[in-house]
Amino acid sequence: MDDAPPRLHLASRSPRRAELLEQIGVRFTRLDAEVDETVRPGEAPGDYVRRVTGDKGRAGWTQVAARADALVLAADTAVVVDACILGKPRDRADALEMMERLSGREHRVLTAVALVGAAGESLRLSETRVRFRRVAPAEAARYWATGEPRDKAGGYAIQGLGAVFVAAIAGSYSGVMGLPLFETATLLAEAGIPVLGAPPPGQD
Ligand SMILES: Cc1cn([C@H]2C[C@H](O)[C@@H](COP(=O)(O)OP(=O)(O)OP(=O)(O)O)O2)c(=O)[nH]c1=O
């Protein structure tokens, strides 16, 4: 049993990201990292999620940098349709408009994940194609009333009721939920945190 405080910190207020990181069994604590998530004029979606993710990671890092081996994990998710970035809906009208745009077609979900430490920062981008069935306006209104779309990029949650809209996905389910676990595990392993733990001596 390892009682030392974890060296890994998740810079996120998202309960989904914490659940996903718990799913792969690594020890971590959580940090709050407030950053400006405004899209810059002309900014490409991939550049946007990379920038915001790096900002979240560095904002978290300033809080733990006193510990030399500390590492900060951060992520950002955007739903992209017709080259437009859909963040979290501002209000009901915004959410219903998002559902109308997503209805009956394919969109992309981009999630960047970054690991920041004393040695610098590494970043990976996950891209998933998601195809929605047609969603009638009345159904979108009932979905809004459940409260689920409120704090979700694109105004839906694949892990919740929103799953009924998802006809198909190609890519990373965990990436759509907010933390792509394949990319996360790769970054952690590169930084000396193998997800399945270090092999016993002499058996690597
Ligand atoms: C598309 C989709 C998004 N989401 C969520 C994941 C993220 O929490 C949220 C996207 O918003 P983000 O701005 O990426 O993250 P956040 O503000 O919730 O958390 P933090 O910045 O503190 O890390 O949308 C789902 O939970 N399911 C989905 O299917």
TrEMBL record:
Position of the signal peptide = none
Q: What is the annotated localization of this protein? A: Cytoplasm
**Which catalytic reaction applies to this protein?**
UTP + H2O = UMP + diphosphate + H(+); dTTP + H2O = dTMP + diphosphate + H(+)
Q: Which UniProt keywords apply?
A: Cytoplasm, Hydrolase, Nucleotide metabolism
The record, for Pfam families, names:
Maf
Q: Where is this site: Important for substrate specificity?
A: 16, 77, 159
The EC code for this enzyme is: 3.6.1.9
Q: Which cofactor does it need?
A: a divalent metal cation
Major subcellular site: cytoplasm
The first-level EC class reads hydrolase
Annotated catalytic residues? 76 (proton acceptor)
What the record says about family reads: Belongs to the Maf family. YhdE subfamily.
- Function, in words: Nucleoside triphosphate pyrophosphatase that hydrolyzes dTTP and UTP. May have a dual role in cell division arrest and in preventing the incorporation of modified nucleotides into cellular nucleic acids.
| Protein name (record) | dTTP/UTP pyrophosphatase
Q: Which organism is it from?
A: Marichromatium gracile (Chromatium gracile)
